[in-house]
Amino acid sequence: MRFVHVIRILLVEWKWYPVNSFRVLVFLFCVWSGMNPSYAADGPLVIAHRGASGYLPEHTLAAKAFAYAQGAGAIEQDVVLTKDQVPIILHDVTLESVTDVEEKFANRKRDDGHYYAFDFTLKEIRQLNVNERRDHKTGQAAYPKRFPIGKSRFAVPTLAEEIELIQGLNHSTGRNVLIYPELKKPAWHRAQGADLTARVLEVLSAYGYKKRESLIYVQCFESEELQRLRNEFHCQLKLIYLVSDKQWDSAVNRAGNSAEQEFQHIATYADGVGPSLSLILKGVAADGKPELTSFVAQAHAARLQVHPYTMRVDALPAGVDSFDQLMQIFVQDAKVDGMFTDFPDRSLEYIHSR
Ligand code: CA
Fold this sequence. Notes:
With 354 residues, this protein is of the alpha/beta class. The chain has helices at 2-13, 18-32, 61-70, 101-104, 122-125, 159-173, 186-191, 196-206, 223-231, 245-254, 259-266, 295-301, 323-333, 344-353, and strands at residues 45-48, 74-81, 87-89, 178-183, 217-220, 238-243, 272-275, 281-284, 290-292, 305-306, 338-341. It folds into two domains: 1-33; 37-93 and 156-353, Phosphatidylinositol (PI) phosphodiesterase (TIM Barrel). It is built from 14 helices and eleven strands. Bound molecules: calcium ion. Residues 76, 78, 182 line the site of calcium ion (CA).
């Protein structure tokens, strides 16, 4: 009854007008149910892309803890295997763009000039220092305004270590932040003689990620692998099929399928799609009006969630003038269900301001 009494005070005595009443109710529900209202599920899911990678080297535990503290709803892991088949967190199957592998293991590159994580044991990978992403040929930072290259000390985490960090923070804060692992190049791993998906599922299962309601989305660019998760592993977890412009072009335009047919097929095995920004935003007209495709509407018609990638303050799409404008286009106009962002704080700031 006290709950009702507080609403009456807010609505009547403090003269909160009906237009505000929904927000008041959401706020009170959050307080009442013990949730921190700043993390309330009142907007699209904010997925920290490789952590708060706009501020700290991608995929380090520091970047993940920072994303957690900023209030991200989900934190992303890209997963590849070591030589001893341990799932580790790394964006590429190669090491040279984000570590000092060339200095520490100069003679371990393949004939193509790359240093593959799969050629190193976990013990060896643990000797590497992680740096901000750079072009390994020129040494230039991919994003010059981000964390300085070669400063401080960061390591490549295992999937298990990162899950322990996020589950540990969920325990100490009382929040329920999701993990969001991506299976990186499963077909390539298979060609090396390893089953990435099986190794990842073993770790996920050991940490309790087994059910549909588990706090996780699993993502992959290879639709065959997502179908394998459903059909061969009978995986119940929520799945997101990642699509690039090129993939979509070949699936829809070149294969002669309609977009509707393609979305219906995806919906037979996945819960959502993760498209590039450009599959949703074609451009911005001179008057500032966004030109949107029908991608989101068609995905929603097939009951698929849409989590596009990637929101970056320092790499805005052509024609977009500010991060807030970018957020407005995707949140207000396109109505996406989630987003991958290098700047979880900035995405949340926009969402909370609405
Ligand atoms: Ca990824």
